[in-house]
């Protein structure tokens, strides 16, 4: 039987030192010995992400989700994958899932998830939401230096405070719906490249800003069914 804790310690040190391939060589036998070890699977995914192999990292994380769909670290690392690929909306979804499932005693990890959530909001231009996330991160875990760094930049006026330009949860649904429409039109189940994804997302954001955001007050009064019907009625020339 492999000494799990000892091996995990070695793997973490190798990841910290940049020895990605060495980390993978140590972690794979451990997973072979225990295929349901979620912590080991997440470390393997981290290694592949750091190596730049996002597809393999996602494959490992989806395997982890099948074992436990509520394991917070898996959602957190999926969020990081989406974030690094520029899919900030999906990243936000995953960071929220991580936050919902962390235990109260896991304060530092939850704080990290809030920090990452703030970074994703910031990338979308949602500065108010980013600030709220970073403040929550510090509230939960006052030693969070990354969140403090961002708040310090805000305090010094290095980032302009603006009202959130989108209703994030409605936009997530709108975006998912339009991405599905686009893929069905093209007869495929995924994008061929990051460039294609960014082009399509840009058109979706433009449609939201020109057709939906203008009636945000009316949108707030709509039922879910009315919103979905309205979203379906909006046509985008991809």
From TrEMBL:
It comes from the Bacteria. Keywords: Repeat, TPR repeat. SUPFAM superfamilies: TPR-like. Pfam families: TPR_1, TPR_11. TPR repeats lie at residues 38-71, 72-105, 111-144. InterPro entries: TPR-like_helical_dom_sf, TPR_rpt, Ycf3/AcsC/BcsC/TPR_MFPF. Gene3D superfamilies: Tetratricopeptide repeat domain. This is TPR repeat-containing protein. The keyword Repeat applies. The keyword Repeat applies. SMART domains: TPR. PANTHER family: CELLULOSE SYNTHASE OPERON PROTEIN C (PTHR44943), TPR REPEAT-CONTAINING PROTEIN MJ0263 (PTHR44943:SF8).
């Amino acid at each position: 039987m492999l000494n799990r804790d000892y091996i995990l310690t070695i793997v973490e040190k190798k990841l910290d030192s940049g020895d990605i391939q060495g980390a993978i060589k140590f972690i794979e036998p451990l997973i072979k010995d225990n295929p349901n070890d979620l912590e080991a699977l997440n470390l393997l995914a981290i290694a592949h992400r750091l190596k730049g192999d996002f597809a393999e990292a996602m494959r490992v994380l989806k395997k982890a989700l099948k074992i436990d769909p509520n394991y917070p670290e898996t959602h957190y690392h999926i969020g990081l994958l989406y974030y690094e690929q520029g899919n900030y909306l999906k990243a936000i979804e995953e960071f929220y899932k991580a936050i919902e499932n962390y235990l109260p005693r896991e304060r530092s990890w939850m704080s990290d998830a809030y920090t990452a959530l703030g970074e994703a909001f910031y990338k979308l231009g949602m500065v108010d939401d980013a600030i709220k996330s970073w403040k929550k991160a510090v509230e939960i875990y006052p030693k969070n230096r990354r969140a403090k760094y961002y708040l310090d930049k805000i305090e010094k006026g290095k980032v302009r405070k603006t009202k959130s330009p989108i209703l994030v949860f409605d936009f997530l649904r709108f975006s998912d719906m339009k991405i599905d429409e686009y893929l069905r039109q093209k007869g495929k189940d995924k994008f061929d490249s990051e460039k294609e994804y960014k082009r399509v997302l840009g058109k979706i954001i433009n449609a939201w800003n020109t057709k939906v955001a203008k009636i945000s007050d009316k949108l707030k009064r709509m039922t879910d069914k009315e919103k979905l019907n309205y979203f379906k009625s909006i046509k985008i020339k991809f």
